[in-house]
Protein: Transcriptional regulators
Amino acid sequence: MSAPTAIRFADRLSNVETSAIRELFKLLGQPGIISFAGGFPDAALFDVEGIRAASERALQHDPAAALQYGATEGYPPLREQLAALMAGKGVAGLAPEQLIVTTGSQQALDLIGKTLISPGDKVIVEGPTFLATIQCFRLYGAELISAPIDGDGVDVQRLEALIAQHRPKFVYLVPTFGNPSGALLSLERRRRVLELALRTQTLIVEDDPYGDLYFDAAPPPSLLALSAELPGSRDCLVHCGSLSKVLSPGLRIGWLVAPPELLAKAVMCKQFSDAHTSTFAQATAAQYLQGGRLGATLERVRQVYAERAQAMGAALRSELGAALGFVPPQGGLFIWARLTGVGRSGAGTALADGHELAQRAIAQGVAFVPGRPFYASAPDPATLRLSFATVGVERIREGVARLARAL
Amino acid sequence: MSAPTAIRFADRLSNVETSAIRELFKLLGQPGIISFAGGFPDAALFDVEGIRAASERALQHDPAAALQYGATEGYPPLREQLAALMAGKGVAGLAPEQLIVTTGSQQALDLIGKTLISPGDKVIVEGPTFLATIQCFRLYGAELISAPIDGDGVDVQRLEALIAQHRPKFVYLVPTFGNPSGALLSLERRRRVLELALRTQTLIVEDDPYGDLYFDAAPPPSLLALSAELPGSRDCLVHCGSLSKVLSPGLRIGWLVAPPELLAKAVMCKQFSDAHTSTFAQATAAQYLQGGRLGATLERVRQVYAERAQAMGAALRSELGAALGFVPPQGGLFIWARLTGVGRSGAGTALADGHELAQRAIAQGVAFVPGRPFYASAPDPATLRLSFATVGVERIREGVARLARAL
Structure:
């Protein structure tokens, strides 16, 4: 379809392709499909009554604040609640003025791109990393470089070499239960990342939407929390948080913590991006957090996701055996797996292409996302992402059985 | 304050200055100040009960839709309601798929910038125009060219010459009760603008947040509505709408109508800007519009603003006389005025600098915004913007009396 002659698009659009997984998603509407393809929490776990009551209190308490224009930085009572939430996660001494509210953490990523990336700038991301981050940064003209990861998160030695080679504008990491990798950056590596950032004066963006979704033990402290151990390192840190995975994505409440100079520029950019995040949603979230229900909500959510992750892991091992390698996740929404190319018994050969398996799987009535689009460069075509978050345990077993048939 | 060495900002930030009016706004918190400086609707007129009930229905009706991730294009029932709203304003045959929901119309502007503006591209705006548009487009590297306006809106002959000279990426107009000008583009000029757009294949962006706030007769149809008269002209039109001035800014509900190729690119950009607009706010707005209360709300709002505009106009004439020239607005939130440099009786000389008057006015306990920052180029320093929207009639009279003392 060619555009009318009056329309001439901006050059930046040529940096992004339409998503390769979009076609797959179109097939998800087919009846009877069991979907491991989603990247969202289970709506059945939302605390609808708690949110309804919070919204009602917000409108009773101060209707003008909930419905009028608000400060670009965010609704002050929400900034206080979010600072308290961060304190509860080990981030000491964070004043409400040191964070701004964003329209989901996706907007935090957009503001990071807008304030920092000039066309041609280099940015290091994990390989694989969050799909929408790749596209978001590319729209600002970034050249993305992938740092390899394993089950313990990013390979710090390789990261150091890439920083020395490319002098990136910043490094983007999802250290805790990343999407798609599910990987957990170890405490020892977290300390090395901070030390590396400080020594090389490299800005690190820590995206942390999943850190609260642990199954058993809490993960190591965030880079932001750990920065208290290493004086000066907080000046090299940007942190993105979100209520989307723990409370409700529909509120679109995220936040951004950054050094004051960067935060001020992000506020200016936000002013011209959407003026401010919905005060109606912000006042509702503030009332919800103040009401103290998040702890109980999180406990319920963690338990359900832990059961589903456990069920999926067990089913994958029993149904696909040696044909599929994966590190069982300790939290989050995803199992990241790799087709080994050998049969389930460990003998013979089997399909080792995630995209082809995805197509066969649809035919068997089960969907997932092949790993390729999650790489900014050098994709591993044998990888795949399976989300267990929105499917009940019985359906997970049935879905994995279908996957085994597809293989 | 210099940034930590780890932070290197993007080049685009050097295209914008921090707002010249920000200092003035800091003074507004002083006790007793009567403020004509705001650019927002009166929170006392919000239909709080209607919005509360709509929100409750949204959560009862389909809590998952109101709280889960949603389509980037917008919540389908809201797109239907907005298409119906546009049909009620004379835009025939607009399908819900031909508009997308944005996070306030500010985001529509941002998406227009992101999809269309490459650094160095020329864009024609009115002089004066909406402040946040100037900064928004400059962040994408636009070079802005001002087309002069009068009480009947943009000077079409001058606009035609500027288009021929600069071949802009697009022209941005606020044809109806513009901010800050309050001007109303006449029907005859609207037809000429459409004809000009079609003939020169120039994209026109029509920003229309104020069109429903008329005081007496309804304004001429929007460019989008009129485009039905001139086959092919709709392909040259982009239209931004908003619920902010008529229902509530805090919901952050705007929309964008554009040719399909442009709308598709805007959706892609929005996906990486904030994923989607709050579904909680969207579902609430959809229920509100479906409930049919907007008509009554608008009637009340129009009546109050008309009284205030009338009171301010009369007070300005009686207190400042020949010292101040202005065209009484027929709608919107603003009186745009110009210091003539002569005394109130028409004899002698008086102050003709809006910025200086603003500072003197603060000392007298009244605030407004001087006109200078609303110009992308060649500012007229004698201009000023006075908002009557949030001040009662008695206080308007008192405020204008203070303004006269300041002069």
